[in-house]
Every structure is written in C-alpha cells, then in structure tokens.
Amino acid sequence: MREFAMFRRTGVTMKSFLKNIRMWWKLRRSVKGARSTYIVDGSDLNQELRSRRRMAPREQLALLDRVSRFARRENIKLVVVFESRPLRKVPQGAEYRDVAVYYAGMRDNLADTILNLMHKLRGRTEVTVVTSNNQLEDRIRQSGGRIMRCSTFRKALESTGGREQRRERRPPRRRSAEQPAPSRRESRGPGDTVESMIDVVR
Fold first, then answer.
1. Strand intervals (E) in 49-197
2. What's the pTM value of the predicted model, to 2 decimals?
3. pLDDT confidence of 199, banded at 50, 70, 90?
4. How far apart are CA 196 and CA 192, in angstroms?
5. Residue 194 contacts by C-beta under 8 Å, 6 or more apart in sequence?
C-alpha cells in the first residue's frame, strides 16, 4: 500500500512506472557488449551540420539515418536525444536502425535527460556525451564523464562518409598477376575513427 500512496503523491501511475522500467531495461540490454556508447545531443549536432536547431520530423529521421550508418561502420552504440516530443514513427526509448532515441520535450529538460541516461549506462559501457552546450559540459565534467564536442563528431561523420562515397564511385582497378599488390595501411579497428578524433574534456 505504501508504494501506491507514493504513486498518488507524485502523480506517477503504475502503468507509466512499469513502462519506464521496461524502457531502461531495454536500453541497458542494447548496450551490452558495446565497447563505447555515445549519447548525442541531436539538436546541437543538427545545428553543427545545418546551422539551425529546430528540426522537422523528417529532418530528425534523416539525422538518425545518417548517424546509424556511421555507428554501423564504427561499430559503436549511439543514443540520440532530441529536444522535442516523440515522433510517431520512433516513440520514446525506441530503437531506429540500432540507434536508441529519447526525447526531452523541451530545451530546459535536455541536460537532465542526457545526464540521467549517462548515469544509467555508466558501468556497463564507456559513455561519451556529444554536445556543444557549455552548461551541460560543466555538469558532465563534475560527474566525471567524458565529453566530445559536436564539431569533433561532425568531422568524424564527414570523414567516414566521404570515404564511403569515394569507395562507391571508384571502379575496381585491374592488376596483372606479375604486379605486386600495393602495401596497405594498417587496418583500423572498430571505433578508431571517432576515438582518434575525440577531445575529452575533464
């Protein structure tokens, strides 16, 4: 009975409480085995890419498409947080092409939402928050978290995206049997592109 009294005082229903429990459990399970997880401020990243924060639903989906391709190439786990209401196609806590998606509703709730996600995932995977919000950076730093600027993440996105496009456009070269194979650079491991560009702020 004490638990039900708590729900009445806080205005939280049993249904929403259980829904939140399932949502967090699903998130923790999705990052299991991931070497690195990046929590991305979706609006800040969009401002870095397109010079504006406000996003239409189709722009949110386009951003999710782009970062999901990047996550697969780099073999990292991404969690994107938007400062908007949930999309009908991608509800709160759902995954879109292996990218977990959360919504803060409004800008004032964004920092708390991201910090909550960071604390929930800490200890299960190495967590880095991608943002350009100075106040959020200060709070993450005080919590001992890792930070990557959106400008750095954008460079990693554009770097790997450019290589993919060049590979698709370039026809395969023919090489005679006598011609030795050209020496190749040492192969990069999963996540090396983004990890090599990270600027950790402590």
1. 77-82, 95-96, 99-103, 126-131, 146-149
2. 0.70
3. very low
4. 6
5. 36, 38, 74, 76, 148, 153, 156
The domains of the chain, with CATH numbers, are: 31-167+195-202 (3.40.50)
Residue partners of 61: CB distance under 8 A and separation at least 6: 87, 89, 90, 96
Angular region, 39: left φ>0, alpha ψ -120 to 50, beta rest? beta
Single out the residue of 153, 122, 130, 160 nearest to residue 31, CA to CA: 122
Residue with tokens 């650079």: 185
Tell me the residue type at 104.
A
Least confident of 5-14, 103-112, 157-166, 189-198: 5-14
Phi and psi at residue 122, in whole multiples of 5°?
Answer: -60, 135
> How far apart, in whole angstroms, are the C-alpha atoms of residue 40 and residue 46?
10
Whether the per-residue pLDDT at 113 is higher than 50: the answer is yes
Tell me, what's the pLDDT at 123?
78
- Coil vs helix vs strand at 81: strand
Both tokens of residue 99? Answer: 């990218």
